[in-house]
Structures are given as structure tokens and as C-alpha cells.
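Protocol step 4 of 6.
Sequence for Helix-turn-helix domain-containing protein (Agromyces seonyuensis) entered exactly as in the expression construct, tag removed. Do not edit the line below.
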Amino acid sequence: MDREQLADFLRRRREALQPEDVGLRRGPRRRTSGLRREEVAALCDMSVDYYGRLEQRRGPQPSEQMLAAIARGLRLTLEERDHLFRLAGHTAPARTALRSDHVSPGLMRILDRLADTPAQVMTGLGETLAQTAAARALFGDETRFEGFARSVGYRWFTDASARDVYPAEDHPLHSRAFTADIRSYLATQGPDSRAAAIVDALLAESPEFAELWAEHEVRSVHPREKRLQHPEVGIMHLQCQFLIDPEQGQTLLVLTAAPGSESADRLRLLTVIGTQDLASRR
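Step 5 output, C-alpha cells:
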């Protein structure tokens, strides 16, 4: 681990980022060149003390998980991410055609401008990599999971709480949709992939999944308009829009409501809840 070069790289990338680049407002009294350390720490979802020690050349060796969070927070390119990993004494993550946990700076810039909207970046396996505050208020923090549980499809069949965001009468439709999604992704990844391992685990753990898997349904059955619910705002009718990054194999999911509708009012309330939750976490 090269602490001096790591500290210099982090500081220069922080100073190169402007508040507008990450969806923050520039206050009239701002004198800092680039972002403040506390702003970068919040973007990376880590403590200010931890990030500050890295810039001061006295921090511990960051884990690969921490480095991935820093790469997203600093909006690094793939080349810059790989450089960051090497400076920290790690091997750069392998780049495979359809499997990457690194969100491109361009996609992160779009996400930053959707702060008042439920939106999140997901892999082809349904693993959430980044969320807006409104998305966290609706779905919970989906970036906290590890192992197979990172996949929303796996959680759907193994964790009853994963279904709470959808009305019970819609569960059969979503079960079919998640099964079809997993099958489609498995076809692109092959029998030795992580997707195949998840399928094996679900066949062993979930009779419902096993029954649906045996039907070999391949069509996409996800509705473009979904009913989602939240304990504080009730049921919302939301439209799903998708922006696909083919190079990274990732999808930006954005949820919106028809203007002037009751769902739009509830969605605005959800955004307030998400902002308050984010402020309390910081």
C-alpha cells in the first residue's frame, strides 16, 4: 500500500469534483476548492474520520468494499478505479463483459440529478449498487446486503420482508417476473456463473421458485406500471423507466408518478421522508 500516493490521488480527485457534479448546492460563502472531506465521506457512506485519515496518510489499508465505495463517491472512471485499488495494495477488480460493480461517472451524474426521485443503479442480477434517498425510503438500503442476498431475486424467495413493498395480491406476478429475470440472466452468464450458483441455492431453498423454474417461462413479465406501498404514505401507482449502460451491464431504474395524481403527492411525501432519513444518518 502506497499511503503517500493514495492520499495525493484522493485529495486531487476530491478537489477536482465540484458540488454541482454530485447534485449538491454551492453555498454563497463556499471557499473550498472542490468538495469538502465531509461531503466526500457522505457520498462514500463512511465516516469523515475514516476518509480524512486516508487523505492524511495515516489510515489503515482500505478493504475492497471500502475502495469500491470511494470509487463511486469520487465518480472515478474504470481506469481511475483500478489505479485506486493498486495504490491501496489490492488487485484491480476483473472486468467481465456483463459483470461489474463499478458505476460509471456518467450514470452517477444522472443519478445525482434525480435526488427527489426513487432511482437506483442495478446489475443484471438485481444487485443494487447506488440509490437516491427517495429509493432508500421506499425500498430500504439495498446496498447493505452481502452474498447471494445482494440479489433482489434471491431475497424475494428467501426473505419475506423483501415483499413488503408490494401489495400481497401482486406477489404472484412479481414471483414470475423475478424467476424469468434470473433465467434470462443465467442464459448470458453460463453454468459456472454466480447466477447459476444462485439458481442452485434457490432450487434447494424455495419450493415456490422450484415450481416456477420448472415451467421454463422466458418472457419478461415485469409491468411497466407497478403498485408499491410504504407504511407512512400508503399505496402508489408508479411508472418504471429504465436506462441501460451496456458497457457495464447495469440498469438505472427510475420510478415516477403521473403529474397531479394522488400517487404524485405521496411520492413527494416519500421524498421528504428520504431526505430526513439521510440527514439523520449523517
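Step 6, annotate. The CA atoms of residues 106 and 188 lie 25 Å apart.
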